[in-house]
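LAB NOTEBOOK - FOLDING QUEUE
OPERATOR: T.R.
BATCH SIZE: 2
PURPOSE: Compare the predicted structure-token outputs for two unrelated chains run back to back under identical settings.
PRIORITY: normal
REVIEWER: second-year student, initials M.K.

ITEM 1
FIELD SEQUENCE / FIELD STRUCTURE:
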Amino acid sequence: MSETPQVERSTEAAPAVDELTPPDRTLMGPGPSDVHPRVLRAMSTPLVGHLDPSFIEIMDEVQDLLRYTFRTDNQWTIPVSGTGSASMEAAIGNLVEPGDTMLVPTNGYFGGRMRSMAERAGGEVVTVDAPWGEPLDPVDVEHAFDEHQPDVFGFVHAETSTGVLQPNVPELTDIAHAHDAYVIADSVTSFGGVELRVDEWDIDVAYSGPQKCISCPPGASPLTLNDRAMDKVLDREEPPKSWYLDLSLLEGYWGDERSYHHTAPITNVYALREALRLVAEEGIEARWERHNEVAGELKAGLQDLGLEMNAADEYWLPSLNAVRVPDGVDDAAVIDHLLAEYDIEIASGLGDLAGDIWRIGCMGHSARPKNVEYVLAALEDALAAQGYEA
């Protein structure tokens, strides 16, 4: 009789991990923003299957609420399973085919990300230039179209890296459509907080993230396409490089069939539904106005401290305030001071503006007067600690 094999048992003890107790921060950076208590409660409700009849009803409700917030009637309006970068890649990776030319801006960090995604999709990328901290000039966009005749034009409606809101969006979309091009709008930092009218402004595709002006944890990210754009997606000669983000397959799950594609992030969809309910209860135009008013108080307070905004008044972005770091002040030390002494999060600059600006968000549930008062008082103290006098 053979001997029973001996199982070697590990003498190493299991790691001792304490109960999760993250710090209670006031989130005033470029995202995420503070989450409304109702949204957190929604996330604690019972899990159901992603094809459960009750969840399918929730999917319908989320799509209707997304349409309301995007100001669109687009049938193809869904939350992409993933962060805002997933909805961004779904938009670009499906609309840009190998051999297509995409026109992207150079006036911020996220125009560069558009470029990277378009190149990975097999597209040829050309640029329309503007300095970091300024919007695109329609005249320059027109010249770029005349020179390159791109198939797709992408622009950033609210550039998180510079604090610039792109004006004259209908003028940009008119230029693109006169050249028979498709328009993709990055609305990550404007959706739900700054005026955005997808249908009225004739935007073909818009994507966003939930963690900014919607004040929802990341995980289910808004995306909308009109029929013209979806027809291009469905008529592709070869499928997109990403199976997971292939909209022709996702259409089967989020369309009429509700057939299995992947397991949706159910709890994140619950959260998005509740966050969008809050938008609808407040009213989208009232919400835009609240962001403008509260951020205006923040802007005035920053200027009272002697600080300079990065963006000019005519294209200041209420949801993301980019503030110039004064001479002689260490930007990272101020950020660390706010976090250590006040549990306030703000962020430094990205790319060309790294070390030159602070990025202070005023988004969603964080866009409240008490938060503005708190961050201004804390910032004054942090600056004083470095010898700066307002």
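ITEM 2
FIELD SEQUENCE / FIELD STRUCTURE:
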Amino acid sequence: MKRSVTLFISFVCTLLFLGSFNSNVNADTKTYNIGTDVTYPPFEFANDKNQYVGIDIDLMKAIAKEEGFKVNIKPVGFNAAVQSLQSGQLDGVMAGMAITDERKQKFDFSKPYYRTGFVMAVATDSKVSNLKDLKGKRVAIKTGTAAGNYALSLKKKYGFKTVTFDDSDNMYNDVVHGNSVACFDDEPVMQYAISTGTKLRIATKPAQLGHYGFAVMKGQNQELLQKFNEGFDKIKANGEYDRIVQRYISKKTIEAQKAANTKANSEHTWIGLIQKNTPTLLKGLTQTIYITILGIIGATIFGVIVGLLGVIPNKLSQGISTTIIYIFRGLPLLVLALFIYNGIPTLTGTKISAVLAGIITLTLNEGAYTAAFVRGGIQAVDKGQMEAARSLGLPFGKAMTKIILPQGLKIMVPSFINQFIITLKDTSILSIIGILELTQTGKIIIARNLEGFKVWAIIGAMYLIVITILTWISNYVQKKLK
């Protein structure tokens, strides 16, 4: 028991040390963590080489180069980026963020760097032509965006229902596939999507014309904000700003993108998809397996400790075990991940990396399930075994390690392997905090080629292959233990 506690404490301390070391390196080298969206072309998206590019990305890098600082771009999604900024996990957000009076209450904005307005788009063959036609129908919006808030402000007046999505691609596809009749987005983003093949058309004129700005938390990172403004003025003066914008919105660029999409070996074929994205998908799978292994190690140590507490003949320890299992098994994994990644830094002021937050989340959530079957496996051993051992003069600890645990282990092993499989699948939920595991990698690829069905089929096959291998291992281990 003492060894298990020591192992768990060592595991947690190592993770916390790595997380704090990462933060210190960023501070010493003046590297700023900048959050951005996952799917928001032409402002941020992955190109055909799976490199993150776009107007926002290139502007931020050009300004950083001009002002002599470094940036660590984190494509976590708009909603996650805003939450991470509020919790102190990020230094700024550059994600096509419209400057509004409401946002100014919480954030300090840079000088406006792009003019925009909100438009409504419908399927190309839709009969909806104006806002009045939305009555009683479903409209898709993107979580946390100004365009989404604009749609919500019209909801009561025009009598439509809304459904929310975390990324633009799923929002667009909901309309293309007929689940929703319309969606709202910023005009330049919508125009780019339509120009590059999305089967939508704009049905309204731009409304609430405004500007995009780079955001930091109110009263914080003022040095970074000043550097951004000074660097922005410089790239405007030397023409770099115009070159960056034209790189993504000029007719020549859009035509080149269309031509690339029509090639026989493009990403619109199964072979093309696999050939172009295999390195990126394997990188995402490697991250998934890495987080799974560390998560299962932490969950095993944590689960064994809590499970053993539940069988010790002491009401206090049993109560602690039951409470821990009840809390962490009852909390949804997504809620727990967001709380650890965004909630704890808000309370403590200490940054936690997304990977570290993910590992802690898996340790606590999966560890609670592990504790439950550890406790159950021990309790499944006939009580007479313990009574016989104690009657022979063996102390409780030795009776547990020499008599009970060896028998209980045979009962627990299948559950351990199954929990490994469950943990592997649960890593997909961690994409919500911006970890670039296999699921998040898929979202980024789909944002570029809009081949959702094919990409998810490939990713599903990858998960099945890994899970099949783990199942074979499980069956082999069970046979050896019989």
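REVIEWER COMMENT (ITEM 2): The domain at 30-112+215-261 is CATH 3.40.190.10 (D-Maltodextrin-Binding Protein; domain 2).
FOLLOW-UP: none requested
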